[in-house]
Amino acid sequence: MQSLSLREDVLAKAETLKVLPTLNTVIDEVLRVLADENSSFNRLFSVVRYDQAISSKVISIANSAYFGRGSQITNLERAMVAIGFDEIRRIVMCLVFLKEMLHQWNLSQGDLALLWTHTLSVACAAKILAGKTMSEDREKVFTVSILHDIGKVPLFMQGDSYKKLIEEAARTGVDICALESGAFGIDHQEVGQFMAVKWRFPQEFSAVIQKHHGRSETGETLVDLVAKADRFIENPAADLGAEGIILRGEAALIKAETTKITELMGVA
Ligand SMILES: [Fe+2]
Ligand SMILES: [Fe+2]
Prior knowledge:
The chain is mainly alpha-helical. 71% of the residues lie in helices and 0% in strands. The chain has one domain (2-264): Hypothetical protein af1432 (Orthogonal Bundle).
């Protein structure tokens, strides 16, 4: 019964989130770009694309009834063009405001840095894998990978009890979703799916968020690609078939790309 009420509590937190919190260094970098009259759209794109908080809001707004043109926008650059600089500025201002609420929400810069680095590593791995297998649009793969674990944010808001689960998963190798379900009556895939629907993410994105921990292949290329990149980042020695061989061969490049971006954004 306890996990039933915890489940409701997690979903209630997911319901109230209008925008995800992010790292101060990322906010500072985006504000710097927005304040510089000479900075280009490309410069802004090259900062926004690495961050789940801003990317998720941009995709959500671009696919809302107001901007929606019938077809779903999965390309972040196109989504940014659709909503414009002013809207992006508003999103970043919301993030500045949220900064003050991190403590109250049991979230720390350390939690966010952990999640930020993980999603970036998965995005770099998935993008390289998509390029090698020529199976999916690499930019779409990158964006959806940045967003794949959004469901973890309301769970991080549960405080130390969630951090203990993460440590347990790392120590024992047990899948984090099983531990989350046991403790909270819900896992981050279901929380993420709830948020993806609420925020009107494209259907393909919701599918990745909902199913990326499946042990068997879903037959949906995008889901399977992100799932393999995610497992590779968690355990580079995991048996992932042909994709595992590709990813292990590109491990140095994935690491170099991730390090370059974390340093660039001041996260490292
Ligand atoms: Fe996940
Ligand atoms: Fe993940």
